[in-house]
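Possible regression after last week's pipeline update?

I re-ran a chain I had predicted before the update to compare outputs. Posting the input and the new output here so someone can diff against the archived version. Not blocking, just want to make sure nothing changed silently.
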Amino acid sequence: VCYKGECVREQPAEDKNFE
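New output (post-update):
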């Protein structure tokens, strides 16, 4: 997924509000 302009594979634990 792409989160805050950065593509990551998993949901960031520090912020659950992501796309």
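Follow-up from reviewer: compared with the archived run. The chain has a mean pLDDT of 69. Marking as no regression found.
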